[in-house]
Amino acid sequence: MIVYTITANIEAPVAQEWKIWMQNKFLPIIMDTGLFEKYIVFKVLNDNDGETITFQFFCKDIIVFKKFQDEHKAKVVQLLTESFPDKVVYFNTLLQQLDV
Hints:
4-stranded antiparallel β-sheet, alpha+beta, globular, Alpha-Beta Plaits, 4 strands
């Protein structure tokens, strides 16, 4: 299992508006690619600067993620950076589930 995370630190005054935008605009775009099986959203509790939310998108394997990366990631990054400019900072990570 591969987990692609997008973490956002949002300035408090726009946090609620941003969450609505993510739910109604961004998440459907990601899930409509058909490449991710599910997603989970978490709020980071040990953050004192604004509000930090992380989205974990689950896909079957690295091949599926590479397809997302090749065909959709540039559009996703552009959408994120153009929305709420200077109010939200994003970073992402790619994780692989291990059986230990």
